[in-house]
Design a protein that fits this description.
The complex is a heterodimer of chains A (188) and B (329). By secondary structure, chain A is mostly helical. Chain A has 8 helices and no strands. Chain A has one domain. By secondary structure, chain B is of the alpha+beta class. Among the domains of chain B are: 141 residues, Sandwich (Immunoglobulin-like); 68 residues, no CATH class. In chain B, the strands form 5 sheets. A 5-stranded antiparallel sheet of chain B has the order 3-12-11-7-8. In chain B, strands 1, 5, 10 and 13 form a 4-stranded mixed sheet that branches. The longest helix of chain B has 25 residues. The chains are: A mainly alpha (188), B alpha+beta (329).
């Protein structure tokens, strides 16, 4: 019984393949789509900061594309822990408390951005998809108008596309292979 | 050429059930079409993550009475359920048949080939693996068959079976892993490793020098055959290569090259153990074939008469490969 899914899954955990550029872009699009309906209900600085984190990753991607010979930009993970702790404190001081519905939603909003900033592997991508789907429900705490339902639709569509992009992961494609795959269509 | 072992009948209720679930015995017919009774589906890791997320979303919607939360949760649950069906459809109906097992020498790699065709639908990212082989990933275009090649190391001589093959796929969206087992009685022959630096061929029956140049003047040209890796350069039909007609090797009638020789197990030095003897005899069979000399082979329990064609060579190598390990002369 060498091929039971459990064992294959454990092996995948030890070496989850890296995300290629297309997958990172889809994940970014999904997170922006999931953040935007929630943003009007949050304090302005939280909304701006959460979206800014996503924008920062896209800026880094763009920098990597323009200068392919330099090593890709890396943000060390310990700074992200600092980010998370600092934003938790900031959310607490903004709301006056942290353990409650609204500050938790605000914290999740920022946390998704922080996680996206350090996302490298397909496993991280799966976690992000889960976080983004949950974030999609949170605007309904404040409003269940038809407009709120309409605002959630783009994220649902992008969610399907992101799952599809993640499933097309081939073990370790270099960035140039990813580019040719895009131009060659899904057949490759 | 494939060497196909006999199918193994499975008897007993419990054994039949195990066989039906896990396909542990090589009991499949020459061609298998994957149907619902063979396809297993469980959530992949991403699938479990999505299901857990959906459960949390459901709890949140229940707790806070979010109607739109229910709507989104059930919509996504519908997506997960729909991909379950598509994961099944990606495997169902694939016809897979065994093609061939290669032959190799111990220490080399042996290759098994299977043919898979997806029928009218295009199948995406079908992963095929068996114990000890790397995963082969193939897209099966609609209406055509693809050849899947599974390679594994062959450390020791004898019959090497392909074993149970797992076909799996996580397409589409990677939420479910569908898999199937097929177990063909396909086995390849691993010849003993030729002894490196083996002594020259024993003297022929006619008293010719064993180290005489392989292709004597008296050997008669009998025809061309396809070039095989390892053929001696002086026997390659270079004129054909230069014309661009392809690679061929000149074959000569067996009488050439210094007369028939006898490869005899009993004539080997007593200090050699079984594996060493087999290894040396293998090297000699190859040397005799290269020198276009007919040979006879005598090992305990079997003997081959004098001959020189390729079938004879294969028969000799097969005898050496299948020689029981524990038997002593």
């Amino acid at each position: 019984m060498t091929a039971l899914p459990g064992r294959a899954g454990r092996r995948a955990r030890s070496a989850s393949p890296l995300l290629d550029t297309t997958q990172v872009r889809w994940l970014g699009a999904l997170i922006v789509c999931a953040q935007l309906p929630q943003a009007p209900h949050l304090p302005l600085w939280i909304a701006a900061f959460g979206l800014l984190l996503v924008g920062l990753r896209f800026a880094l991607l763009r920098r990597d594309r323009l200068r392919p010979d330099t090593p890709p930009a890396r943000i060390p993970s310990w700074t992200l822990v600092l980010f998370a702790v600092a934003s938790a404190l900031a959310v607490r001081s903004s709301f006056g408390y942290l353990l409650g519905r609204d500050p938790s939603v605000a914290f999740l909003f920022i946390l998704v951005g922080i996680k996206f900033l350090e996302t490298r592997t397909v496993r991280d991508g799966t976690l992000l998809v889960a976080l983004a789907s949950f974030l999609l429900v949170t605007p309904f705490f404040r409003s269940q108008s038809p407009f709120a339902a309409f605002a959630a639709l783009p994220a649902l569509l992008v969610l399907g596309a992101t799952l599809d992009a993640l499933a097309r992961a081939h073990p370790g494609p270099p960035p140039c292979a990813a580019r040719s795959r895009r131009s060659g269509g899904p057949a490759c | 050429m494939p060497s196909v072992a006999t199918r193994v009948p499975v008897a007993g209720t419990w054994a039949r059930a195990r066989q039906r679930f896990f396909r542990l015995a090589p009991a499949d017919e020459s061609s298998v079409v994957l149907r619902h009774s063979r396809i297993y589906i469980l959530p992949s890791r991403r699938g479990w993550a999505m299901i857990a997320t959906l459960a949390i979303m459901l709890l949140t919607s229940l707790n806070y009475g979010l109607s739109l939360g229910f709507a989104i949760t059930f919509l996504l649950a519908g997506l997960v359920a729909a991909t379950l069906l598509h994961a099944f459809r990606n495997l169902a109906g694939i016809e897979i048949r065994p093609l061939a097992a290669s032959e190799t020498f111990a220490g080399g790699r042996i290759a098994f080939t299977l043919s898979a065709s997806g029928g009218e639908r295009t199948r995406e990212a079908i992963e095929v693996r068996s114990a000890g082989t790397a995963v082969a990933v193939a897209d099966l275009p609609a209406g055509s068959a693809a050849t899947l090649r599974l390679e594994r190391a062959a450390p020791s001589r004898g019959l090497l079976a392909l074993g149970r093959v797992t076909l799996s796929s996580t397409q589409p969206m990677g939420l479910w892993r569908a898999w199937s087992y097929v177990h063909f009685p396909l086995a390849g022959i691993v010849y003993p490793e030729p002894e490196p630096g083996a002594p020259p061929l024993p003297r022929g029956a006619h008293g010719h020098d064993a180290s005489a140049p392989g292709m004597g003047e008296e050997s008669e040209f009998s025809g061309l055959r396809d070039y095989q890796p390892g053929d001696a350069p002086q026997r390659v039909a270079w004129k054909a290569v230069a014309r661009g007609a392809g690679w061929y090797t000149k074959e000569f009638d067996g009488s050439g090259g210094g007369g028939p020789i006898s490869l005899d197990w009993a004539a080997l030095p007593a200090a050699l153990d079984t594996e060493k003897r087999l290894s040396r005899l293998t090297a000699w069979v190859l040397a005799a074939e290269r020198a276009a000399r007919p040979f006879a082979l005598r090992i305990p329990g079997a003997a081959l008469p004098v001959a020189a064609d390729r079938d004879h060579r294969r028969a000799a190598l097969t005898l050496l490969a299948m020689f029981p390990a524990e038997r002593r002369p």
